Sequence to fold (372 residues):
Amino acid sequence: MMITPQRIEFSLEPTFDFLSEEYCCLYRDACATVFQSPLWLDHIHRRLAPALKAKQNTITARDSLTRELLAVFPMVIHKTYGVPAIQPADFDVCDYNAVVASSQVLTRLAEDPQLLARLDALLGCGPLLLFRKVRADGFDYSRLFPRCRTQHSDSVSFHCDMDDDLEFWKYESLNRQASRKLEQLFRKLQREFPGSEFVKVEDHDLIVQAIECVRDCRVDRLDDDILRQQPYFDFYKNYALEAIGAGEASMFVVLVDGHVRAALFGLQANGVFHGTLLGGDTEELGRYSLGIQCHFLAAQYWHGQGDRVYSLGPGSPDYKARFRAVGTTMINVTRSHSLIGAGVSALYHASFPFKDRIKSQVRRMRDQRRAA
Fold:
């Protein structure tokens, strides 16, 4: 039965439980992504947000008569450019952000001015609303936030579609030469380091070693990597240990001489694995392209499990081009509620044209430093 707009009630629930049965039921039927899954958001709100001095600001929509949960806005208040902003609980660990609700409920909210006004009263309590990383092929969230400003993000998420015939995918859909080169490199690794293997792990100690491997490999290359910060390392470690046991995530590693020398961690749902953390030894074993090997071998593993879509996530398109990956554009939405909010919003949007230039310069300086 369709609920009338008059019965929809918005509330701020700063202690909302993302592991509750009502949220799990809502999420199963919602047009959200794996990055709004119950366990993931529970770890973000209970562990990561407090460590980063963010305040939970979850907004819910319920049936005022039955108290049925209709929608969840998983928001927090966290500073952006020094200004408190209402934004999704993201903290740069989510590939996508979304409101957790069915498409019918989202449409109902967007089409009713009175509902939008009631929602606006809760979202307008800070200087700035910032809703980043919305899939452009999904619901248009600007419909929920009147007077907002939208802009295409500089971040693009990549996925590859796999054919039913794995060999055709490897040698025809992908670059035949590149696929054979990767296979030759891995066989060479196994010849030079007998016993080397690519495996999916569930052992506690190996999971911890894998997260440590990713951190160490990335920190050596990326000066601003989030894993340099202890709260992020702890978040990924604790989530991985629980989610892998629950079957919601997977960890793949390359073992060389019994040690983890490369690792790939990701979330999985609805027949799609989302590669989230990747790191490989580029110093001693760089010639074997262990990071790319992880994606190449993990995609083949999931193909064997019946999956036909493999997500490489957002980031640099350079190595992802080898997988003939398809890009999904993302949208950033902002709305200011004060003069200082308007200033931050203008700065935020204006910075995007320069980000690629800055990133290119940083990569060039890093390559020069390595060559020195």
Observations:
- The chain has a mean pLDDT of 89.
- The first strand starts at residue 8 and ends at 12.
